[in-house]
Amino acid sequence: MTIPVTPAELYHHGLQLLLQKDIPAWVNLWDDNGVLEFPFAPEGRPPRLEGKAAVGDYMRRYPDHVDMHDFADVKLHQTTDPETIVVEMRGVGRLVETDSPFDMTYIAVVTVKDGLITSYRDYWNPLAASQPGADFAGAH
């Protein structure tokens, strides 16, 4: 495997790891001090996770909740900062607990330095995540 060198390549690689349900490998794409933010997090959900360990703890049970089948309609936009990209996409799969369909639209602003994610702002839809059975839907 080629080591991802651009933020876009790293992001695409991360999506493949999530589809493979390889959460430890996905977490290894993070800088030790990386920050994951959910600006639209509803009450009771974490709006900010600081550090690789916190991101790993949050994501470790992701495959137990969401069986992701595809990341569709991925559009990556380069910003004026070569280390920062804006991503639009849909996550498609099923919620494990209810076996109901999962289809979430995301916009993310991701910054990568020295080949690792340092900042990831995940603008997911809290209204869709509040549907029955979608308890873990915002974790991405």
Please render the helix and strand layout as text.
Blueprint: H1 7-19, H2 23-27, E1 30-37, E2 48-50, H3 52-59, H4 62-65, E3 66-78, E4 84-95, E5 100-113, E6 116-124, H5 126-129
Parallel strand pairs: 1-6
Antiparallel strand pairs: 1-2, 3-4, 4-5, 5-6
Describe the sheet with the most strands: 6 strands, mixed
Lateral arrangement of strands in the main beta sheet: 2-1-6-5-4-3
Distance between the termini: 24 Å
Could you estimate the helical fraction of the residues in percent?
Answer: 10-25%
Helical/strand content category: alpha+beta
For the CA atoms, what is the radius of gyration? 14 Å
Quick one: overall form?
globular
Number of strands: 6
Q: Notable features of this structure?
A:
globular; alpha+beta; six-stranded mixed beta sheet; Nuclear Transport Factor 2, Chain: A; 24% helix; 6 strands; 5 helices
